[in-house]
UniProtKB/TrEMBL annotation:
<dbReference type="InterPro" id="IPR020846">
    <property type="entry name" value="MFS_dom"/>
</dbReference>
<dbReference type="InterPro" id="IPR036259">
    <property type="entry name" value="MFS_trans_sf"/>
</dbReference>
<feature type="transmembrane region" description="Helical">
    <location>
        <begin position="7"/>
        <end position="25"/>
    </location>
</feature>
<protein>
    <submittedName>
        <fullName>MFS transporter</fullName>
    </submittedName>
</protein>
<feature type="transmembrane region" description="Helical">
    <location>
        <begin position="64"/>
        <end position="82"/>
    </location>
</feature>
<feature type="transmembrane region" description="Helical">
    <location>
        <begin position="164"/>
        <end position="183"/>
    </location>
</feature>
<keyword id="KW-1003">Cell membrane</keyword>
<feature type="transmembrane region" description="Helical">
    <location>
        <begin position="377"/>
        <end position="395"/>
    </location>
</feature>
<keyword id="KW-0472">Membrane</keyword>
<keyword id="KW-1133">Transmembrane helix</keyword>
<feature type="transmembrane region" description="Helical">
    <location>
        <begin position="344"/>
        <end position="365"/>
    </location>
</feature>
<dbReference type="InterPro" id="IPR011701">
    <property type="entry name" value="MFS"/>
</dbReference>
<feature type="transmembrane region" description="Helical">
    <location>
        <begin position="217"/>
        <end position="234"/>
    </location>
</feature>
<feature type="transmembrane region" description="Helical">
    <location>
        <begin position="283"/>
        <end position="302"/>
    </location>
</feature>
<feature type="transmembrane region" description="Helical">
    <location>
        <begin position="133"/>
        <end position="152"/>
    </location>
</feature>
<feature type="transmembrane region" description="Helical">
    <location>
        <begin position="31"/>
        <end position="52"/>
    </location>
</feature>
<comment type="similarity">
    <text>Belongs to the major facilitator superfamily. Metabolite:H+ Symporter (MHS) family (TC 2.A.1.6) family.</text>
</comment>
Length: 418
């Protein structure tokens, strides 16, 4: 939760600190600049995915999770103390860039390490349910950020928020990450990793080992493409869209996002548990069809809402569709790879897809808006979903694969008895 709070709070508070680092131009131009720095973090995720994914496969899931939260704490502290344009010119923006680079490294490894840990630590038949808590915690991080934003909006003036109040959430994030560092130091390692470490000391977490699973790596990129664009559209970009395009007050837009995300968070375990019963592919296919056909009318309608109720209902429809992807995407990717390259196999292809599509989603949306063709972004999201849908329709089901030799032997024993 703390990792993703630190990652998303940048986007949530960008509307308040954009003018502090980019004083020239209109509001959309300032947001474009901060969105560009937001995207920079995503372009570091492949490097983080490679380095920390390799680290997780060679040194363990626990070690990687501890390292990622250390990087995230340092980056949050950097943003909290970043000097403004008025004080040092564009050097403050450079500090933001460095902080986002560190965050990109951290999250590049965090996603794979946590996805792998949750999947390996859970018995077959409950992996979908357990791994769905990754997006529960991710969304909880966003909710904490939005909740803090709502508190600050109601206790501070807009001038104070834009002047110094936006630094508060980053100070909170840095402090909370220090607590998480202690918690992760006391994690137990997974049985699957311990088994692999005992039996195979060579080739773990290497690019050479990953290249022997090229098909699976390409599959991760393709199945992530539509999901990550849709996710960032209905989460991080939604508040800006409701405020900047629909014309809702920032406070109302923030409250819509908060309520919608809370319900979205509660849906994740339900959908993850359902995938343990009916398989992963039906949920992915449902998401693909819904996102391909529903994005244009939903986003068009959201652009015309004039109050809290309409914004909440339409946002929830979009997030219910996205749940078909978010609730199980971690477990699907982990189930595609063997233990010796599982973290790297999840981390690097996923990070590449996020850098190309997830991290740029907000920038692409604002670019379309700045050029007077905002609806073009809606079609872009639909097109990405359509490409991923083809993958969902043709990929193999992964629900019943064994993640370790112990699990495989147990499955064969059960089959023999039957």
């Amino acid at each position: 939760m703390v990792e993703w709070y630190d990652w998303f709070v940048y986007s949530s508070f960008a509307v308040y600190f954009a003018a502090s680092f980019f004083p020239e131009g209109n509001d959309t131009a300032k947001l474009l600049n901060t969105a560009a720095i937001f995207a920079v973090g995503f372009f570091m995720r492949p490097l983080g995915g490679w380095l920390l994914g390799r680290y997780a496969d060679r040194k363990g899931r626990k070690a990687a999770l501890t390292l990622t939260v250390t990087l995230m704490s340092a980056s949050a502290l950097l943003i909290a103390i970043a000097p403004t344009y008025e004080a040092v010119g564009y050097f403050g923006a450079l500090v933001l860039v460095v902080a986002r680079l560190l965050q990109g490294l951290s999250v590049g490894g965090e996603y794979a390490a946590s996805a792998t840990y949750l999947t390996e630590a859970t018995p077959r038949g409950r992996r979908g349910f357990a791994s769905s808590f990754q997006y529960v915690s991710m969304t909880a991080g966003q909710l904490v950020g939005l909740g803090l934003q709502i508190i600050l909006q109601n206790t501070m003036s807009k001038e104070a928020l834009s002047s110094y109040g936006w630094r508060i959430p980053f100070i909170v994030g840095a402090a909370a990450a220090a607590v998480v560092f202690y918690l992760r130091r006391n994690l137990l390692e997974t049985e699957a990793y311990d088994e692999e470490e005992r039996e195979s000391g060579k080739g773990r977490g290497t690019i050479r080992a990953l290249l022997s699973h090229k098909k699976e790596a390409l599959l991760v990129i393709a199945l992530t493409m539509g999901g990550t664009v849709a996710y960032y559209t209905y989460t991080t970009y939604l508040t800006k869209y409701l405020s900047n395009s629909a014309g809702l007050p920032k406070e109302t837009a923030t409250l819509v996002s908060f309520c919608a995300l809370f319900i979205f968070m509660c849906l994740q375990p339900l959908a993850g548990g359902l995938s343990d019963r009916i398989g992963r592919r039906p949920l992915l296919i449902t998401f693909g069809i819904g996102s391909m056909l529903g994005t244009v009318p939903l986003m068009t309608a959201l652009g015309g809402v004039d109050g809290f109720g309409g914004g909440l209902v339409l946002s929830l429809i979009g997030l219910v569709i996205v749940t078909g992807y978010t609730s199980i995407n971690a477990v699907v990717k982990a189930e595609l790879f063997p233990t010796n390259v599982r973290a790297l196999g999840v981390a690097l292809p996923y990070a590449i897809a996020n850098a190309l599509f997830g991290g740029t989603a907000e920038y692409v949306a604002l670019w379309f808006k700045d050029n007077g063709i905002e609806s073009g972004f809606f079609w872009y999201v639909s097109g990405c979903a359509a490409i991923s849908l083809v993958v969902y329709l043709t990929m193999r089901e992964t629900r019943d694969v064994a993640l370790s030799r112990t699990e495989q032997v147990m499955g064969e024993s059960v089959a023999t008895r039957v």
